[in-house]
Design a protein that fits this description.
This protein is an alpha+beta fold and about 150 residues long. About 40% of the residues lie in helices and about 15% in strands. It has a domain of about 90 residues. A hairpin with a 6-residue loop joins strand 1 and strand 2. About 5% of the residues have low confidence.
Length: about 150
C-alpha cells in the first residue's frame, strides 16, 4: 500500500475535482517526443467492476482525444511546467488561456502533414504571425519574441 502523505492525497484531490471540459495532457508511451491532448467529457466516475487487483483503480474520467502533438510545439509556459510534473497529476489552470489558443492554432497545423524541415519552419512562422492577433497578451508577446529570435 502506498504511503498516505500530503502529496499523495493532494494528487487524489486534484484528480477528483477535475472539471468537465478540462484539457488533459498525457505523454505518449510509444514516442517520448509526443504528447496526447484530451478534453474531459464528464466528471470522475466510480466503477465498482474495476475495483479489483486485475483492473486496478475503479475511479476514472471519460475523455475525448483532441490531438497528439510534438511536445516542443506546446506553449513555453506549459513546457516549463511539464519539466516538474513527472508521473504526477498537476493543475495547469494558469496555462488554460495559452492552451486554448494553442488548440485553435494546432488544429490547422495538423490538417496537413509536414514533410520537410522547410515546410515546418514556414508553418511555425505562419502560426506565430497568426498568434500576433491573439486576444491573449501573453500569446502575442511570446509570438513576437519567437519571431524576433528567428529573424
Amino acid at each position: 500500500m502506498p504511503d498516505l502523505n500530503a502529496h499523495n492525497l493532494s494528487q487524489v484531490e486534484q484528480f477528483l475535482h477535475i472539471e468537465v471540459g478540462s484539457i488533459v495532457l498525457s505523454p505518449s508511451e510509444s514516442n517520448a517526443e509526443s504528447m496526447h491532448l484530451f478534453r474531459t467529457v464528464e466528471s470522475v466516475q466510480y466503477d465498482m467492476n474495476r475495483d479489483n487487483s486485475k483492473e486496478g483503480n475503479p475511479h476514472g474520467v471519460s475523455v475525448e482525444h483532441v490531438m497528439t502533438v510534438k511536445k516542443s510545439l506546446l506553449p513555453p509556459g506549459v513546457l516549463r511546467s511539464l519539466k516538474g510534473a513527472r508521473k504526477t497529476v498537476c493543475n495547469f489552470s494558469k496555462h488554460a488561456a495559452a492552451m486554448e489558443e494553442f488548440l485553435k492554432v494546432a488544429e490547422h497545423i495538423s490538417e496537413e502533414p509536414v514533410t520537410t524541415e522547410f515546410e515546418l519552419q514556414n508553418k511555425v512562422r505562419n502560426t506565430l504571425i497568426q498568434a500576433l492577433d491573439s486576444e491573449n497578451e501573453i500569446v502575442r508577446v511570446q509570438a513576437a519574441a519567437a519571431l524576433y529570435k528567428s529573424a
